[in-house]
Amino acid sequence: MMxxxxxQCCTEDGQPDFEKxxxxxxxxxxxxxxxxxxxxxxxxxxxxxxxxxxxxKQMMEKCGCHFS
Length: 68
Known about the structure:
The protein contains four helices and no strands. By secondary structure, the chain is an all-alpha fold. The mean pLDDT is 80.
């Protein structure tokens, strides 16, 4: 599932993409995003380099996305 998340949330070069991440979370059933959640997502997408997958996964689980 993490590979699927990476494919759907990141650009081809592995950078997190805010719009893709938001769409993925909406697909998981997330309807409303708090300011904090949006800020956290933007933070992931602005880092450059490899994303911290554990932190990204934790954020998504907190938002209601579940991974097997």
